[in-house]
Amino acid sequence: MITALSVTNLALSRGDRLLFDSFSLTVTAGEAIALTGANGAGKTSLLRAIAGFIRPDAGEIVFTGAGGALDSDEARGGGLHLLGHLDGLKSGRTAWEELLFQAQWSGGTGASAQAACETLDLNRLKNLEVRKLSAGQRRRVALARLIASPRALWLLDEPLTPLDAAWRARFGELMGAHLAGGGMIIAAVHDPMPVPARAVEVGATAVGA
Amino acid sequence: MSSFTALFRRELALSWGKGGGPLLAVSFYAAMATLLPLATGPAPDKLAIVAPGSAWLALALASLLSLERLVERDYEDGALDLLALGPAPLEAVAFAKCLAQWITTGAPLALAAPIASIALGASPGLSWLVAFTALVGGLGFSFCGGIGAALSIGSRRGGVLIAVIVLPLFAPPVIFGAGAIEAYAAGLDWRTGLLLLIAYSLATVGLGPFAMAAACRNALS
Question: How far apart are CA B52 and CA B73, in angstroms?
Fold first, then answer.
């Protein structure tokens, strides 16, 4: 299990454009980070670099477990959730089929998927096709995966956007519970986070862009 | 292991049901087999000569149909991120996808192939070999087609691009498969063609998932 993440002197670019360099960040168990920054500053790219999808130009990303540094592929494959702009749900399948698959694929079970359904009040929506759900309901199905398969590090890309006020508050409680259990959250947000979080600005260190 | 089973079940469900899957491929195949005799004109003996080869060509084209949904949809709706962050490497994901594609598209086509070749005038005695080569060749079509599907991720008009990438790679199985059937019909040595076809399919099974996974990683970055 990941207990800390350290990003050191990271430089990322997309195409020819340098997004930022010398970016450092340390996250320890129980801590939440709110990534802020203008549109296009590189928040999503940073999250995808931590998830291992984008190769950084320079710098390193190290996951630490209880027994020291972890192999990054193993840490990513079993220790982190990435929830992007897209919910990753197939429109032609039912919410339950998709949630069950996502839970089992990322290490959960049928029972934990059912428990997540109750936590996020999805029982009524379970047998509907994903295409018939609203954006907020789809996001709740996607969030259910975070609850159904416990992984220490949550990388969230504007997770609150489609949620209504009540669900933002409810998701805040779930984030709080995750942090209290030793989890970590890095979220790219434009709105205030519903849990106490350290704000980190992305893109402020860019040089000569 | 349970997560891999869950993935495989999902891939089967996706390609069996919602993607059109077997019904679409077999209907397309039947339509091709119907059009071919119309194109060659009223000479049944001429048709019987080209029947095995034509049946194989139609098979290759029908195998292309559902390749577009193999990885492109997962990329579009964000599920590929999730698949890349699972307990199994992307190579295993690619393997599961192609295997499911073979079971849901290749196997039904292999059942339809003897019927089509008999309808085109080939001897019914060839049926078992037609079905067997179609089954083995279909394995190669699925795994080789998967490479094309992964390479064309993110491009508009992906289906046409897949066909352009993949059809030249379909040349060896078409040559070996149709060649084996023709040799068998003529009483010549047909085993060489069949063995080469099996070798081709096994090579795509061994190498295809690595190429697909590399192409997916490239698309995700």
Answer: 34
